[in-house]
């Protein structure tokens, strides 16, 4: 049972981390617009492709 | 006037193609359905993206966005590089992609953020000011854009409350989850020293719940106390206070009688149900953005002979102003100079453009389609126009709770007061009269507070109404407020406008009424009509789309607004226009039919070849709808602006009363005579009647903004939407009754058990949120269970359309 003395603080730290992550996401408007991100998939892909090609050119 | 040469060497298929990029249908002669698709297609084909003047763009003068004194109203002084714009026409991924590529066209842009759900664009520049290039670029890409005043953006962006509620819920959820884990271990049995440690950890975890998550309950209870009133949060706050003081007292004493688990669960579940309610209501009942857009729209005012750009909200009576193409008239005004077309669909739902000339009065809300050289003088200012009044009125109505939820709210408050008195009575009098121990009396009192608190009762009605509004919105039925459902259920008389409501309201090609044009002549008409955007022309083109194979070449094609189309084909002068008096060759047999249709003549060398007639057809399934209404004990009447034999025939088939030849005011009087009436009409021509009726329902408006004039807008083809509206109202009524009965019985039964000591505070803390959850689930269940058979209207489909001669004109 002594393992509990290690596990409980770990749990509490994990809880704090997840709550902090949620609050960060909420405060940075992650839940305000749930439609646009679905549209943005293509754009990221395009930018990644551009970046890749730039890196290839540099090499 | 619009003149162009039409090339004859293309096939019909080429000229009426689908969007090359996404496959959606697109306008004649265009390869793409929207600017976004065009841009992404270019990118995929490795063509450099270029900013071109879209034909839809009106090329407005955006210089005022470079003027610091004007710009002050749009940007915050703390961050003058940031501007919010309202962008109309964001349709698809391609549009988002294109808008994110704005920095390719405007040099000093730092970041762009597109918000599709609110049609907003957030633009951050590296240098302050000078936003004209941004607005111009967006417009040239083919989107309608208006910068948002700071105050309007703040109004739209009131999400701070929701954010805070989310944070409070997240903390309560995390703490409650972990406290429950510890509590279950403690209940399962463990060494006493470890159990005490678990309780101390629970005590630690409950602190953020009490201090932060439960704050809404503390604040509301304190407010109620200051105002000497009772609300639902008073017993909750009392329970939280007594429960935590008692638990901490026992914790310090080393006793295991602590109720942190119940307190945490109580807060978590209550916040969860509130969050759900707030989210649903925020999503479905937003405030109007139309007035903001109109007020922010910049117009050119002529002052002392020189033009000046001002926001529409600043227009004063008698000011002379001009508009760019596609702008909406923000005020009622008179035409001082010029002529052209206006699109009245926002006000009337009528798709046919109207001609304006000098001296005509144009109402706010109409859109300028051609004639940008026109000058207009303000007749009434922005906040005095009918449009503004309708919208403001609706906004006020939306914010009001429905009568039903208001009544339940009052009932819940009285119930709460009774519970409070009873609970406090048990705590105080229990030891004195019933010889209970102080601890037992406190337990029973707290248990009663928690278990009998009518939280479920308070949110059940708004929840069901929100679900009803949600379902309606999904079915393209836009409802102004939840009390519409009650009004529908209470109504006894339903008035239908005929044209546009029971008929389709727009004209489709019917037949050639005179002469028999040959294949070549049909193709000639097709070639003449195909470049025009006039609805009659579009309907002809759609009708003959598959039968015309090769188009002739049209030289000197010309469209005169309100007069017709002309051109030269194979050296012959051809034209399509209205018939002049004396040109009508129709026999007396056909005369009645001719009167009821929209007709235009096709001429070759000024000689009439044929007459094209366009008809307005009846919707299918009118009879099943009327039968269903009559079965629901509602009287049905037809009101029409025209008189025709088929109106009477139609009324006979439906077995309803029909009154014809009614002007707008006579319609209003008819409706006013009846109490608890519903008027179902198609727009501005029925507006007086719609306003006078207990409930106004507009159908098939071209834009959701039509909602602003009436209580309900059914934005769907046919009458199925109206049937859905009535069945939804019945469903809301049944669900309300069932859930209220359940919630009341649940609270009374468990309250009795708590009073008699069969339920302790721990069990009560579980039962009470269970009540909220069960009410939530029941609401969802009833709203599903009572979904009526969608095919009900199809049974014995008694479509009356084919049996009647169609009717034209506008009733």
**What is the number of beta strands of chain A?**
0
Order of helices and strands of chain A: HHH
What is the averaged pLDDT score of chain B? 75
Low-confidence blocks of residues of chain B: 1-16, 53-58, 284-288, 702-706, 788-811
Which percent bin holds the helix content of chain A?
over 70%
Number of strands of chain B: 27
**What is the residue-averaged pLDDT of chain A?**
76
What's the helix count of chain A? 3
Percent range of helical residues of chain B: 40-55%
Gyration radius of chain A, rounded: 20 Å
* CATH level 1 class label of the largest domain in chain B: Alpha Beta
The major beta sheet of chain B can be summarized as:
7 strands, antiparallel
**How is the CATH topology of the largest domain in chain B named?**
Rossmann fold
What does this structure look like?
The complex is a heterodimer of chains A (59) and B (811). Chain A has 59 residues and is mostly helical. Chain A has one domain. Chain A contains three helices and no strands. Chain B has six domains: 2-44, no CATH class; 63-156, Alpha-Beta Plaits, CATH 3.30.70.100; 160-284, no CATH class; 295-394, Calcium-transporting ATPase, cytoplasmic transduction domain A; 483-504 and 619-726, HAD superfamily/HAD-like (Rossmann fold, 3-Layer(aba) Sandwich), CATH 3.40.50; 508-615, 3-Layer(aba) Sandwich (Calcium-transporting ATPase, cytoplasmic domain N). Helix content of chain B is 47%, strand content 17%. Chain B contains 28 helices and 27 strands. In chain B, the strands form five sheets. Chain B has a seven-stranded antiparallel beta sheet with strand order 1-18-19-20-21-22-17. In chain B, strands 15-27-26-25-16-23-24 form a seven-stranded mixed beta sheet, with helices on both faces. In chain B, helix 26 links the parallel strand 25 (677-681) and strand 26 (695-699). Mean pLDDT of chain B is 75; it is low at 1-16, 53-58, 284-288, 702-706 and 788-811. Chains A and B meet through helix 1 and helix 3 of A and helix 4 and helix 7 of B.
